[in-house]
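Support case: fe (ii) ion complex. Customer-provided input:
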Amino acid sequence: MLFDFLVPQRILFGPGCTGRLGEEASRFGKKLLLVTGRRSLLASGMIDRILAPLRTAKLEVIIFNEIAPEPTLEVVEACRERARSEQVDLIIGVGGGSVLDVAKAAAGLYYEEGSIRDYFNGRPVEKPGLPWIAVPTTAGSGAEATRNAVLTDKEAGRKRSIRSDFWLAKVAIVDPVLTMTMPRELTAVTGMDALTHALEAFTSRWTHPITEALSLEAAVLICRNLYSAYKKGTKEVREKMALASLMGGIALNNARLGAVHGLAHAIGFRYQLPHGLVCGILLPYVIAYNMTIVEEKYARVARKLELVPPGTPSPEAARKLLHFIQVMKMRLNIPGKLGEVGLKKEDIPALVEESLDSGSLAANPRTAGYSDLAGILETNL
Ligand SMILES: [Fe+2]
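Agent response - structure generated as follows:
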């Protein structure tokens, strides 16, 4: 057995752990760029939970909040420029996956000479960047634990990842209190993204015992708590979802993903759909496609969830898991098919072409070529 295992240098987890942001940030300098979304933090009143510990630690804070969902290369360029012109010592990203990815890429490319587009187009990242701290406010992307940033090149019409082993956060501060104000729809789609991370990492070709343990536990936590987070969102279930998202992020960072993520970028970009929504819609279709190869693994999840009595044969247990996820998707009000949110038959060839070179697709346990992916999308019309 051979494997690598990479995690953020330090992970703080638990309600209120944002209170330690100041002491953590102080380890890296005196002046920082706080990267956050346009509305979420201010609107939810959570900004004080972030600013108070930074003030107590007497840190100079520059705010960059020009980030909308599905961030572009230009936004990362502007963020890096701001960090450079202010000569900050570190970057803190506070937000959902999009915000964390901008903070990560701007910090990661701080000392690199090329444009952001150069690295998006494949120029290798050669230098370590500025230290950065990840503070997620959704339970879904796992971006606090990954070394890649998903960005969009609007000119070229492409969405893909830039990645580097240098890009792991120095500190990930996962405080479930910050996820308490997530609206229902966001809870549903970010939760389905996290479930997809867990199940794709669990069944990936590159899975190994450590990622397997993390992703199995994450999948079980999400299956048990996502609907409750959506309906009531108590502290207890938010905490379990935040933990599951973090574990799924660590697992995907080391085991990669699968065909759902292989297809999701092209579809999300073409129809301007939230990433988690695309993943949530596609997940059961890809589970059905992969069933012949990883039935035993799906059965393990079903048994751990006690969806079937002990001794139930694997084919039946695996089918139970698929059914459970289809029902959960319906209860979360996620559309059954991509056709309901814009997928058109005539777009399928281009969408498949755009997805074929995806690293996620290469990790899918069952080989999926052109006709297989086209088949998955045709059943979604
Ligand atoms: Fe994802």
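The beta strands are 10-13, 31-37, 60-67, 90-95, 132-136, 148-153, 158-163, 171-174.

Case will auto-close in a few days if no follow-up is received.
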